[in-house]
Amino acid sequence: MDNGGDDDPAPPATIGCHKYVDRNQRPTLDPIIRGMSVVRRKSFVQEFVQSKGAPQIFILVFLVVLGYGSTTGMVPAIMSDRYARLNHGYVNDTTCAEHEITEKPQACLEGSADAQNAAAMEQFTENAITFVTSSLIGSFSDEYGRKPFLIAAIMLTLLSPLSLCLVQIIPELSPLWYYSACSTSGFVNWIAVSLSVLADIMPPEWRASSFGILLAGIYFGFAMAPQLARILGHLQVSILALVSIMMALITAICFLPETLPRDVAYQVKRARKAKNHSILSSASNQQLLLWKLGKPLRDLSIINRSHLFRVLSLLAFFSSMVSSADQTILIYYIEERLGFRDSDVAYMFLITGTLGMLAQSLVLKWLVDVIGDRYVIMTSFALGMVSNFLYGMADCKSTIFISAAVAAFVHMAFPAISAIKANNVEESEQGRIQGALYSLKALGAAVGPLLLRCVDHFTKNIALFGPGTMFVVASGLYAVAVFYAWDLPDTGVSTKKRNNNETVSYHDDEEASEAATFASEDATLCTRSEEIFTPIETTTLLGGQN
């Protein structure tokens, strides 16, 4: 029975950043950073700019977000108008977006409700797919490399602006074509793969900051992209978005290097083959099928490895419920209830994007150094409570702008969560842990918009908060996230010494015990596969904080 694919060449004595030595020899640390042949530099900026892969990822992410963000503000207006015409008999020459808020026809209001429901269902479908596939894709990228999956993700992202162009060109085309195209991007999440790329090339103490820089690129794209809708028509912006994402695809194919070290890929493949052989050597065809079908759940099980991972997963879940609902429903809500136009949406994105870029590139690193990951996460979620409560109470545009400014600092939590998880797994599990984290985020993102739409359905006529009740409920979900964040350990409460005075941080005795168990299992797998070399890794858990 074939249990692992093609035969692998024997690893050389030195591959990438790892120096391989005989098991009987004393390990010596290699100063070269993981597989990129770059000597450790003194500053984060130098490390990020001069590393092979990080600048390309930043440019690639900016181009993708420039394309995606330029259409985000105008999609609600386009789809609401199309649903009003197809489903509710709206026939005026003027679009629904051109009516004043107090003069909107009932058909336009009903079309907006249809568009919000379709957007919520699209998010549910996309994130349900991501929940199933993300950890699996992450595991595969640990073995076969990051670049192929990143290229596939961008190709799927291209379908969204393409379908948006077709919806505007063909008046009879249903918006469901656009929402269906958007949902296909859930098969491969480009952000999760991008985070794995940075985890490959950045040292542990700078991972949170590098993840923040990645999100800063996203915010920069969101700050700039909606301004295009103020000077160009909807169709022209859609075509520009398509071109921008095509440029990102060219960047990934032609300029992005493969960042997964060969030794890590070799180690993962040998371990998989050994494990498959031990389990499947006597398995029946039915057992073999069940084993293959169960792989996504086995890959996802990494989030249950320890108490720390379970808490971080809950944080990712609850925060994703709210952030996804905000991204999906907020623009529809403010256009319908507060009369936002393209220029207002562009101004809101400019505020959020500019402040978010500053938060991720400057404030995040400073806060992590001063107060640590735990309090950064708690502070971010507390600001999420404030921003969503203000959304729910808003009765004018200025309140929305203030809320957007506060919301720009909420996403500082995600780089901290991602870095903690990345720094608490082996280098051969970077793709798997980022994929599993995104699976949990996808589950929250799938449930969040539908939950808030249900809340809106039952509470929109209540006198106290009215239609804004759903955002008040979202504020309560952030309060739950703050509660769970309080249960996070302070960084480096308990430590365990490794070779050459390297420090591995555990938050309690359970964490250290579980880490020793997994290390023992990994050693057993290596023995089964008759591996005679040992990679020496230089990972400091929890970002190297003391």
Overall description:
The structure is a single chain. The protein has 546 residues and is mainly alpha-helical. It has one domain (44-270, 297-494): MFS general substrate transporter like domains (Growth Hormone, Chain: A). The chain has helices at 44-50, 54-72, 75-87, 106-144, 147-157, 159-169, 176-183, 190-201, 207-224, 228-231, 234-254, 262-280, 285-293, 295-300, 307-337, 342-393, 397-407, 413-422, 430-459, 469-485, 509-528, and strands at residues 14-15, 18-19, 21-22, 494-497, 503-506, 533-534. The strands form 3 sheets. Strands 1-2 form a two-stranded antiparallel ribbon. Strands 3-6 form a two-stranded antiparallel ribbon. The protein starts with 13 loop residues before the first strand and ends in a 12-residue tail after the last strand.
